[in-house]
Amino acid sequence: MDLDVFVAAHQEQWARLEQLLGRGRRLTGAEADELVTLYQRTATHLSLIQSSAPDPLLTGRLTQLVARARSTVTGTRRASWRDAARFFTAGFPAAVYRSRRWWIPAALLSTAVGVLIGWWIATHPEVQAAVAAPEQLKQLTRPGGEYETYYSSHPAASFAAKVWTNNAQAAAVCLVLGAFLGLPVLWILFLNMANLGVGLGLMASAGRLDVFLGLILPHGLLELTAVFVAAGTGLRLGWTVVDPGPRTRRVALAEQGRAALGMAIGLAVVLFVSGLIEGFVTPSGLPTWARISIGVVAEAAFLTYVFVLGGRASRAGEAGDVEEADRTALLPTAA
Known about the structure:
The chain is mostly helical. It has helices at about 5-20, 30-50, 55-75, 80-100, 100-120, 125-130, 135-140, 145-150, 155-175, 185-205, 210-240, 250-280, 290-315. About 80% of the residues lie in helices and about 0% in strands. The radius of gyration is 27 Å and the shape is elongated.
C-alpha cells in the first residue's frame, strides 16, 4: 500500500471527523449519523495501516482519533452499585473458577513442599540446629513461647489490619509479577511454604504440632487459598506472554490483565475476612476445635462461592473481564 496516496485519499474524512468531534454535543441528527459513519471508516483505515504499512506517527494520530470518536459514539457510563453487585456475584467468582487449573495445582504442590520441609526439619536435629541455637528454638516452641504468643502480641483490631495489609500486598505482588513469565510468583510461593514448613517442623520436633495447627488452621485455610489463587492467576498471566492463543499478545494480555486487576480487588476482600479471623478468632479463648471449625466453615463458604456461583457464571459466559461495552474496541485485521 502506498501510504502517501492512502493519506491523500482519506485526509479529508479524518479532518471532518475531527471537526465533528470538536463540536461536542452540538450536532444535528444528520451530523451524528455522519460522525458514526466516519468513525467506522477511520477505524478500518487504522486497521489497514497497522497491518499493511505501519507508520508510528500516523497510527498514533488515528488511534487517538478513533478513541475520541468511540467515546463520543458510545458515551460514558458511571460505575454503579449494579457493577459492584455484578462483580461479586458473577465476575470475581467466575474469574477464580476459570483459573482453577492454575491455582489448584499451585496449592497442591505448594502444600506438599511445605509439608516436606516441615518433615525434613522435624526429623533432622542437625537441620534444626542450623535454623537457630537450642535456646532460641526453646524460646520459639515452649508453652507461651513466641510461636504461641505471636497472634496475641498486639491488639486484635490493629493486628488484623496489619495482617490484611501484608497479605493483600503479597497477593498483589503475585498478580503483578506474573507478567514476568511467572518466575517471581514461584519464588514467592516457595518463601511462603518454607516459612510455614519451618514452623511446622520446629513445633512438631517439640511435640507441639497440635498447638501449631490449632493456631494456623483457623485463618490459614482461607488465607493460603487466597494466596494460591493470586499465584495461579499470576502464573496464568505469565503463560499468556508465552502463548496468547488465537488472540494477539496485546489483546490477550489486556484481557488477562483486567481480570487480574479485578482478582486483586476480590482477593483483598477475602483476605480481609481472613485477617479478621486471625486477629479475633485465632488468639481467642475458644477451644481449639471451635477455632478450627470457624476456619473450615470460612474455607468451605469460599469454595462453594467459587465452584457453585462462579461455575454457573462461567458457564453462562462470564470471564471476569469488564463488560463488553467498557472494553477497548477491537479493530478488524487484514487477512
